[in-house]
Amino acid sequence: MNARLRDVAEHAGVSVRTVSNVVNGFRYVAPDTRTRVQASIDELGYRPNLAARTLRHSRTGLIALVVPEIDSPYFAELAARTVRIAQHRGLTVLIDQTDGDFERERLLLHGKRGQLVDGVLFSPWAVAPADLAARTDTVPLVLLGEHDGPAPVDHVAIDNVAAAREATRHLLATGRRRIAVIGVQPRTLNASARQRLAGYRQELEAFGLAPVVDRERPVRRLHRSDGYQAMLELLDSETPDAVFCFTDQLALGAMRALAERGLSVPDDVAIVGFDDIEDGRYSVPALTTVSPDKDQIASLALDALAAQGKPPRSIIAPHELIVRATT
Amino acid sequence: MNARLRDVAEHAGVSVRTVSNVVNGFRYVAPDTRTRVQASIDELGYRPNLAARTLRHSRTGLIALVVPEIDSPYFAELAARTVRIAQHRGLTVLIDQTDGDFERERLLLHGKRGQLVDGVLFSPWAVAPADLAARTDTVPLVLLGEHDGPAPVDHVAIDNVAAAREATRHLLATGRRRIAVIGVQPRTLNASARQRLAGYRQELEAFGLAPVVDRERPVRRLHRSDGYQAMLELLDSETPDAVFCFTDQLALGAMRALAERGLSVPDDVAIVGFDDIEDGRYSVPALTTVSPDKDQIASLALDALAAQGKPPRSIIAPHELIVRATT
DNA sequence: AACGTGGCATGCCACGTTGCAAACTCGACG
DNA sequence: CGTCGAGTTTGCAACGTGGCATGCCACGTT
Lengths: 327, 327
Description:
Two copies of one chain form a homodimer.
Chain A: H1 5-12, H2 16-23, H3 31-44, H4 50-57, E1 62-67, H5 73-88, E2 92-97, H6 102-109, E3 119-122, H7 129-133, E4 141-144, E5 154-158, H8 160-173, E6 179-184, H9 191-207, E7 216-218, H10 224-237, E8 242-245, H11 248-260, E9 270-274, H12 278-282, E10 288-292, H13 294-306, E11 314-317, E12 319-322
Parallel strand pairs in A: 1-2, 1-3, 3-4, 4-5, 5-11, 6-7, 6-8, 8-9, 9-10
Antiparallel strand pairs in A: 10-12
Helix pairs in contact in A: 1-2, 1-3, 5-13, 8-9, 10-11
The first copy, chain A, binds a DNA duplex through helix 2 and helix 4.
Pfam family, one (chains A, B): LacI
Protein name (chains A, B): LacI family transcriptional regulator
Keywords (chains A, B): DNA-binding, Transcription, Transcription regulation
C-alpha cells in the first residue's frame, strides 16, 4: 500500500491537515514546517490518492472521447489533438471505442461511465437524435460531427453542406461533368454523409446538371476497402470523370482501384476527398481534400464541455478546400 | 448532484446497506425488496459513484497507455486493439501522449498518474533503462517495444533482429545488392531502431556483403516527411536498388520521393517497410512489410500487467514478413 | 416451551482527502 | 499590561461505498 497523508503526518510530526496544506500549496504554512513535511513526502514517496480527491471534489479531471474506431486516421488525428489540448487544460482523456455498435453507443450515452468522467465528447455513428433526447445521464455531453433533428445537446461540426458544395464546385470548375460520389450511407442515420450528399446535389443543380442516381454510390463503412469496392462497381457501369469521396479513406481505396484498372488520376478521373488525413498528403498523387480544422474542433468541443449548463448550441468549426494533385 | 445510495434507500424505505446489496447482487435479499429497491434505483436514475468504489477497493479498472503520438498509425492501431481487448477484460484505457518528450515520459513513469490507474502500458521513446530502474512508483508497468540493457520491468516486443534479418534476406533473395536502410536513430536511445539496424547488418554480412555507411540513413522522427527527406538524400548520392525502412510511414514517404523522381517501385527500387499499417495495404503499389502481431502484443501486455509481482520477463510476440507489391 | 437454523436486513466503520471553523502563538499597538 | 490580529496549526466531519458482524424473524425440531 502507498503512503497516505497520515503516514506523512506521523513521520513529520505534524497533523494530517498540515500535510494537506503543504501538498495543496496553502499560503499559511511556516517555511520550516513546509520543508520538513516536504522531506517526509519525498522520503515516503507519497502520492495523493486521486480516488479520495475525486470523492471529495466530485470532479475527476477525466473526459471520455467516444469514437467508432480510434485507428481510423481521422479519429486518430482528432484524438491526438484532443488529448494534447486537454492536457493543456489539466484534463485527461479516456478513449471509448464503440466499433459503430448501436448498443455500445447507447450504453455510453446513458451513463455507463458513471461518475468516472466530467464530460463526454461523443462522435456518434449509429445513435439517432431521439436516443440523445431520451438521455437521463447528467454528465455534460458534446457531440462531434454532424447530426440533424433537434437534439438537446451541444454539438461541434463543420458546415458539411457548404464544404461539399465547394468540393463539387472545384470539380466543375476544372471541367468535370460526370461527377460521382462515394460514401452515401444506406441507413439514413449518418448525418454527415447525408449533408455532404445534399451539398453535392445542390451544387450540381446550381450548375444546371441533374443528379444521376447511379453515380451516388453507397458504402457500408468508411474504410479503404469500401472505397475500393465502390469504385470498382462505379467503373463497371460507366467511367466518371471525377469522384467526390466523403472521406479520404474512401478516396484512397478508390485510387487503388483506379490504379489497378490502369486509369490515371487526375487525367482520367479526378478525386476529391474529405478529412485531410496525413495519408492523403503523401499518397501518389497527393489528394485534394476538404480539410476540417481539427484543432478548432477539439478546442471548441472542450470549450463547450466547460460551458455546459447554458442552452445547447450548434457550433460551426472552420474548414477549407486543399487542392493538391488529384484534381 | 446525482442520486446516492442513501437517496435510493430513503425512497425505497430500506437501509443504505440493503440498497448496496441489491446493487451488488448479494444473495439474501427478499425478491420483493429487490424489486422495490430496483424500482427506486430506476426512478431516481441512480449510478454507482466510481470514485467511492475506487476508494473502497483501491482499484480503478483503468489502465494508461502511454505512447509518443496516438495519430501515428502504428500506435493508433495498437491502441485500438488494446482498448478493445481491455474492454473485454473489464478495463478502460486512458491515453497519455508524450510527443516523444523526455520530461513528460519521466513524469509519467514516476507516478504522475498517482493512484488513478491500475497499470501502465508504456511505449517509450526518449527514456533509457536507467530511468526505468530509478522508478519509485509502485503501479504495475509493462514496456511495449524493444529496449535493451537490464531494466527491472516486464516488456513485450517482437524479435526485431530476426525480423530485420528476414526483411533483408527477402531483398537479397530477389536479387537486390545495393540495399539501403532508412530509420537509423541519431541518438542511441531507440532500441528498436538499433536492433533493426543490427539485423540488417548481420544478414548482409552472412551473405558476404559489407555494410556501406552511406546507405544507413538517419531520421529525426518516424514520420512520412522524414522518410521522404531521407530518400531524397539517398538518391542524391547513389541510387540503391532496395530500401529497408524501419517503419511503414518512412517507407510511404520514401515511395513518394521515388515517384517524384520518376523512379519505379519495385522495378528500379524495391521497398520493405515495418509495422504493417493499414495505409501500406492500400498504397500503390502495396507495401511489403514486417507485420508484428498487434493483437498478441496488446493481449500479452495486458496479461503481463495482470500477472505483476513475479520477476520481470521479456515476452516475445510473433511477427511475419508479408510480401506485397513493392519487392 | 426452549432451541437451532436459514433467510433477510441493518448499523457501524474505514477507505484518503479536504472544507470549515476554531484554537493557538506571538509580536505590535494603545 | 491587555487586546488585537496576522500567521500558523489543528480536530472534526463528510464525500459514497462495501466489509463485517450482528440482530431479527419465522419456522421446524427436540
